[in-house]
């Protein structure tokens, strides 16, 4: 009897790379859902909702598989900074983050429809940006494609140009908190 499949319900190449570090076999199925991205929604609620939405959409189509969904956002001044629509919005986000500390929230949702398994986890990390002038913002935007990244930045791509420090899970800031992911996959029997 073969072991149950693990599916990552995410289009993010960063999540694929991170999950591969745990040494568990998985495949990717991208959930065809519309994520809730209202900037004034409590970010913990938003990322939990979106992670569950993705894992449940894929889980209904693959009921025997374990399905992992994840969603990440950046939170500052009572607003979520999701993926920017264009470079102008990305620039505005980086200006807002400059010289300040914000929180990165990720929601994880593991589902296995055939047995009714539902495991959810939320992780928060803090990131402090350096003060940035327009030339520093332009230099960063010239080097990094930011339109697919919450908050318009990637800590792992030239992050030293922007970031003064961080607390919590580094991999959470990248987009998939490996410590929490390993824990829920271990509890589900997918990791030894």
What does this structure look like?
It is a single chain. This protein has a single domain (6-187), classed as Maf protein (Alpha-Beta Complex), CATH 3.90.950.10. It contains 6 helices and 7 strands. Strands 1, 2, 3, 4, 5, 6 and 7 form a 7-stranded mixed sheet that branches. α3 packs across α4. It starts with 5 loop residues before the first strand and ends in a 5-residue tail after the last helix. It has helices spanning 13-20, 43-61, 87-97, 134-143, 170-174, 178-187, and strands at residues 6-8, 27-28, 66-76, 79-81, 101-112, 117-129, 163-167. The radius of gyration is 17 Å and the shape is elongated. α1 links the parallel β1 (6-8) and β2. The longest helix has 19 residues, at 43-61. With 192 residues, it is α/β, with parallel strands linked by helices.
